[in-house]
UniProtKB/TrEMBL annotation:
Residues 8-235 form the Glycosyltransferase N-terminal domain. InterPro entries: Glyco_transf_N (IPR058980), UDP_glucos_trans (IPR002213). This is Glycosyltransferase N-terminal domain-containing protein. It comes from the Eukaryota. Coiled coil: none annotated.
Length: 474
């Protein structure tokens, strides 16, 4: 790879300080840093600390990336009550001043241009950069192009002069698309309108690729007078996707490999190919005791091998989950004894990408989170979808209706209802043992192969990365 170290351009990353947002920003940082461009990662100190702890398995070092630890009032991030969460969002504006100071200091040193890449949620934080000479901003969307396109479509006014192409794009799935009001807080429609009309930017970046979302990237590009780059999937094996190397599904070559192998990997080694379903609902979801009971019974009755990550949702400022944190989660009496070697219930951190990439893993039951979807589709694993909140229901439509690499467990229209064990059992069996599930698996494998080819030299995704680097270092 050609060196760009003499370009005197610095990149400043401004993620929204929550793990699901910070992770893709870190992966993008590594991609940019691989082109010998210095990257400055700016976020709340406690979130930076948690991020680095979590990523140690995938990135032992952070070369060419400098972390800047900022702070906001501590009590602003210690609650989830809606009014205080809004106060937390407002308090993030306090990061604008320090961000400007960092950028000006870089421009006073050796940099002739500062490139600020920020989360779409951080619009108000970066707006002060308009007064900084030789600085330009780019929005990095950590949700799918399908979701952004859907949200933009929902806030279109009757006086909008946009043609009907977007309407036709969503028409086949109109009956399945969720309303914005059912997924987000009441403030979301106004925010989407602001985001759609935002002009203080030099372009948009998406964590996706054309093989996954080509039509929706095209629709967004048609609406914008700024360039759009699709640089994904940005996951822990970003160097495999973008650096012309073959990835392998074997656990021995996983980029998440650590010195001592996790017990889940050792257990997977003993299982047949495509015989295990991996169950995990991310870091911000906690089910009711009743729902946990139904899920446990559904997995047991499916008679499939499974790994179930059962943790309380992560607490801000407390990255390390202890047995005390998860002891409240009760399972049906005798479940673990009855399941025996057929299942693992993990109450600790697990190497998710390594599990998904293992040959024994044949399905993934999850919350339809975008980062997790990208991990699963990159290694060719089909999914069982159970959307929980925000962009999950939009991703669910993309996964099950557009790409057809997944089966629905819980329809979003029934989001307030208890999902019964027989529904879970049937969905797991469909994914793991039916001809329909095998067709989904083949489509997922085909898409995985297309993604890998796209990331090689000469591929569309590799060209997108080269185009973006050339643009910011021009």
């Amino acid at each position: 790879m050609a060196s760009n170290s003499n370009i005197e351009v610095a990149v400043v990353m401004v993620p929204f300080p929550e793990y699901g947002h910070q992770t893709p920003f870190l992966h993008l940082s590594h991609l940019i840093a691989s082109y010998d461009i210095p990257v400055h990662y700016v976020s709340i100190g406690a979130r930076n600390h948690e991020l680095k702890l979590r990523q140690q398995a995938g990135y032992q070092l952070f070369p060419n990336i400098q972390f800047h630890d900022l702070s906001i009032p501590e009590n602003s991030s210690s609650t989830e009550k809606e009014e205080e969460y809004l106060s937390y969002l407002e308090s993030l504006n306090l990061l604008g001043g320090p961000l400007g100071d960092i950028c000006r200091a870089l421009l006073l040193s050796s940099c002739r241009r500062v490139v600020v890449i920020h989360d779409s949620i951080m619009l108000s934080v970066v707006q002060g950069m308009i007064s900084v000479a030789n600085a330009e901003t780019y929005i990095f969307h950590v949700i799918s192009a399908f979701t952004v396109c859907s949200l933009f479509h929902q806030v279109r006014g009757n006086d909008d002069d946009q043609d009907d192409d977007q309407h036709l794009l969503f028409l086949p799935f109109q009956a399945h698309l969720p309303s914005m009001d059912s997924c987000y807080k009441p403030e979301m429609p106004e925010f989407v309108k602001i985001l759609r009309r935002w002009t203080f930017k030099s372009g948009d970046i998406f964590n996706t690729c054309r093989d996954i979302e080509g039509p929706y990237l095209d629709a967004l590009a048609k609406q914008s007078d700024r360039p759009i780059w699709s640089l994904g999937p940005l996951i822990n094996n970003v160097h495999i996707v973008h650096n012309n190397q073959e990835s392998s599904s074997s656990s021995s070559s996983s980029p998440n490999k650590i010195l001592s192998r996790h017990r889940c990997i050792e257990w997977l080694d003993k299982k047949p190919k495509n015989s295990v379903i991996y169950v995990s609902f991310g870091t911000v979801t906690t089910f009711s005791p009743e729902q946990i009971n139904e899920l446990a019974l559904g997995l047991e009755r499916s008679n499939q091998n499974f790994i179930w990550v059962l943790r309380e949702k992560d607490k801000k400022g407390n990255d390390v989950m202890t047995e005390k944190d998860v002891s409240k989660t009760k399972l049906p009496a005798g479940l673990e004894e009855r399941v025996g070697e057929r299942g693992i219930i993990a109450r600790e951190w697990v190497p998710q990408l390594e599990i998904l990439g293992h040959p024994a893993t044949g399905g993934y039951l999850f919350h339809s989170g975008w980062n997790s979807f990208l991990e699963s589709v990159t290694v060719g694993v089909p999914m069982a979808t159970w959307p929980i909140h925000s962009d999950n229901p939009f991703n669910d439509v993309l996964i099950t209706k557009v790409l057809k690499v997944g089966v629905v467990v819980r329809e979003w229209t029934h989001k307030d209802e208890l999902v019964r064990s027989n529904t879970i059992e049937n969905a797991v069996r469909t994914l793991m043992t039916s001809p329909e599930g095998e067709e989904m698996r083949q489509r997922a494998l085909d898409l995985s192969q297309a993604i890998k080819i796209s990331g090689r030299d000469g591929g569309a995704t590799k060209k997108q990365a080269e185009s973006f680097i050339a643009h910011i270092t021009r």
